[in-house]
Design a protein that fits this description.
Layout: H1 14-30, H2 39-52, H3 73-86, H4 88-107, H5 110-122, E1 127-130, E2 146-150, E3 153-164, E4 171-177, E5 187-193, E6 199-204, E7 213-224, E8 228-229, H6 235-271, E9 273-274, E10 277-278, H7 283-311, H8 318-343, H9 353-360, H10 371-385
The structure holds flavin-adenine dinucleotide.
Flavin-adenine dinucleotide binds near residues 163, 372 and 373.
């Protein structure tokens, strides 16, 4: 049973404690069913389930079917942590509804919000966020996909890759170069309907923790002028603002994976016979468990501090979100690796929870800013604080 004492921390109010308890009950009743290998079908079913359960309402503002006036990062983080602890795919589905519609919540026109956000909240529409390109990953400003203005809109050419929900999404928030200036200043955001002529989203990428992931190709894809999302030439800043909002919640998902690994390893250590006692009597196993507890607690403190700063203090929290994501994702990798070690041969046996967690955690250290990129953010902020 995962530790819940953190819910008493001053970062939360009663609505968060109520949310955590309600979601825990819902997860126990609704998640964990064996998936038959069709990951697209499993994701579609989870979108419907999470929509019916009312959980996707936390992904959009209240005026468009959501719960809070503005997105509440503590609620998003609590939901991601809890879902990840029960079922990584459920967390993935929830996260993508939020990230895929986040730019619309932050920068969309009234008409765009009305057209997409209620359907995201109910689970009727599946969202995706298309930023990365084959030669522009961490270096987003190097993107090459173009959206050239023409009489009644834009014509798009290029490619995006590693796009979560690619192939099953109903719409993509796309970032493309509109050429107002070189680098970060010449990029704009658009909303693209799946099935648009000139969009090919069929090329899938298989990854170690399966979920829908695709390369998108655009060949003379025409978009109406109304597809422009936010301000022309401000797409880079809009993408970064969206990622800033959700970065803390990647840390929360990693924390959920880590808590599950710690629970599994603790149960195993207490019940696995070793000599006259159990694994838990062994000093080296105790040391591993102590280090796991330390990583989990440190991650939780950093994740919920970053969320609280944004929600309550209304502060820009790039530094704290970077600290939270770095510690929680790298820390979860350490925790899960130790859990596998404590399980011995059983830990690398396909289908055992710690083996699944070992695969699931890895991508979180790469996407939405690799660990090394988070260190750049932290170091820059540190130097700024020292007047450099
Ligand atoms: C499972 C998964 C899902 C994803 N989903 C999406 C999605 O939905 N939408 C989307 O747009 N993208 C998505 N991505 C893409 C993801 O954001 C990129 O993979 C990530 O930004 C890294 O880009 P890259 O893979 O091109 O690696 P590169 O940019 O080539 O970087 C490789 C490595 O170089 C190092 N590095 C890079 N830059 C720096 C730096 N400045 N300082 C120090 N070291 C550095 C890091 O170790 C990094 O891991 C997803 C990726 C994965 C794996």
């Amino acid at each position: 049973m995962a530790d819940k004492s953190f819910l008493d921390w001053p970062f939360f109010d009663d609505s968060h404690r109520e949310l955590a308890a309600r979601l825990e009950d819902w997860c126990e009743a609704n998640l964990g069913a064996a998936q038959d290998g069709d990951v697209d079908a499993a994701c579609r079913a989870l979108v419907r389930k999470l929509g019916d359960g009312g959980w996707l309402r936390y992904c959009v503002p209240a005026a468009w079917g959501g719960v809070h006036q503005a997105l509440d990062v503590r609620s998003l983080a609590l939901i991601r942590e809890t879902l990840a602890r029960h079922d990584g795919l459920a967390d993935f589905v929830f996260a993508m509804q939020g990230l895929g519609s986040g730019t619309i919540s932050l920068f969309g026109s009234e008409a765009q919000k009305q057209a997409y956000l209620p359907a995201v909240a109910s689970g009727e529409k599946i969202a995706a966020f298309a930023l990365t390109e084959p030669s522009a990953g961490s270096d987003v400003a190097a993107m090459e996909t173009t959206a050239e203005a023409e009489a009644n809109g834009y014509v798009v050419n290029g490619a995006k890759t590693y796009i979560s929900n690619g192939g099953i999404a109903d719409f993509y928030v796309l970032f493309a170069r509109t050429g107002e200036a070189p680098g970060a200043k010449g990029i704009s955001a658009f909303i693209v309907e799946a099935g648009s002529e000139g969009l090919d989203d069929h090329e899938r990428i298989q990854v170690i923790a399966p979920h829908p992931l695709a390369t998108l190709k655009f060949e003379t894809m025409r978009l109406p002028a109304a597809a422009l999302l936010g301000e022309r030439g401000r797409g880079f800043a809009e993408a970064m603002a969206t990622l800033d909002l959700f970065r803390t919640t990647v840390g929360a998902a990693a924390l959920g994976f880590a808590r599950r690994a710690l629970d599994e390893a603790t149960q195993r250590a207490l019940t696995r016979k070793l000599g006259d006692g159990t694994l838990a009597d062994n000093g080296q196993v105790q040391a591993m468990l102590a280090e796991m507890v330390l990583d989990v607690e440190a991650s939780a403190l950093l994740v919920y501090r970053a969320a609280w700063l944004r929600d309550v203090k209304g502060q820009r929290n790039s530094r704290e979100a970077a600290l939270a994501k770095l510690q929680a994702s790298d820390g979860a990798q350490r925790v899960i690796d130790k859990a596998v070690q404590i399980f011995g041969g059983l830990g690398v046996t396909v289908g055992v929870p710690v083996e699944r967690l070992y695969r699931e955690i890895r991508a979180l250290r790469i996407y939405e800013g690799a660990s090394e990129v988070q260190k750049v953010v932290i170091a820059r902020s540190h130097f700024r604080e020292h007047g450099a």
